[in-house]
Amino acid sequence: MTPPDASENRWSDLDRPPLSALALRRALVREGGLWTSLDVVPTVGSTNTDLARRAKDLPEGAVLVAEEQTEGRGRLDRRWSAPARSGLFFSVLLKPTEVPVEKWGWLPLLAGVSVATALSRSAGVDTALKWPNDLLVTVGGEERKAGGILAERAADGVVVGIGINVSLTEKELPIPGAGSLALAGAVSTDRDPLLRSVLRSLGQWYGAWRASGGDPAASRLQEAYAAGCATLGRTVRAELPGGRSVTGEAVAVDGHGRLVLATAEGVQQPVGAGDVVHLRPGASTEETRDTGE
């Protein structure tokens, strides 16, 4: 897709006005706060890639927002795209140097809790979390993926990328079975207050987690994630690196952020990485699959 010319077509879609970097900075970038800079670009290949490239020279709290991503990536190097200004596509740079590196794996889960909390408040949409990094909404009684999170190490920190389908119509969905806030009945699809709400929520959860030294229990992050996780209590198949898979009931998220499966053999198997498929009760067919934002 060819991006619109920002100078000639700034208001070409009145239902999807552009974000104002100036207004967002005034609201979010404050002395002593987490967010130290915020830039909005018309189009970019990947906000994660661009921000990671500059991570060494940037302070913690840098935010990069794109009106359109042409090479958006998800886990397992999946590709994802959406029309310009139809969603929120952004990355943030975090440098929790006082937290042990082995606890940084909680950052994508922390981002999921932050987004779900914010969207419930600002969009009136209940957002469930599919382990480890998917955002689910309900459309016509069906659970659909409306967003995803990708965390990557960069220099001495982590870049966390977040993509949320906001105003996409059924015809605009990148793949069958995807969803959007609009399709889920959001009370608002104004991206400015939605982004402000998500970043404020992320700042609050990150602050509590960092203040606890990255302890997911003391910061209540583990409890909040489990409460909002749609994967727990379901029978799932985890497709692991190397072509292996394990099937069982998802019974917990442990202190390392791993999904714990109770298998038919009576073994509790922690899964730290993999592609998780929700299975229909009593069957081996797929119910909800990670579709890769």
From TrEMBL:
EC id: 6.3.4.15
Pfam families associated with the record: BPL_C, BPL_LplA_LipB
BPL/LPL catalytic domain ranges (all copies): 45-165
InterPro entries per the UniProt record, alphabetical: aa-tRNA-synth_II/BPL/LPL, Biotin_CoA_COase_ligase, BPL_C, BPL_LPL_catalytic
GO molecular function annotations of the record: biotin--[biotin carboxyl-carrier protein] ligase activity
Enzyme class: ligase
Domain called Biotin protein ligase C-terminal: residue spans: 231-278
Keywords linked to the UniProt accession: Biotin, Ligase
Keyword Transit peptide set for record: no
PANTHER family, per the entry: BIOTIN PROTEIN LIGASE, BIOTIN--PROTEIN LIGASE
Protein known as: biotin--[biotin carboxyl-carrier protein] ligase
Organism: Streptomyces flavidovirens
